[in-house]
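INSTRUCTION: Work out how this chain folds

Token vocabulary: learned, describes local backbone geometry

RECORD BEGINS BELOW THIS LINE
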Amino acid sequence: MKPVTPDAVLAAIIGSKPVPRTEMTKKLWAYIKKHGLQDKKNRRNINADHLFKPLFGGKSSATMFELTKYASKHVK
């Protein structure tokens, strides 16, 4: 996989080093699990904290299926 470079918004969560998209997704999920951002009732939803809100375009939550869509907007 070709590495992608995260912008400042995504780098705040996964770091600034270029990583393949698969690794980017793994790091996002590691952060979500570490900080308990997965919704307790509807496990498909991810609740945004202060770092995820800019990633989600200001939304307070997104589904797990939208996660890579939003993250892809923040890579070069």
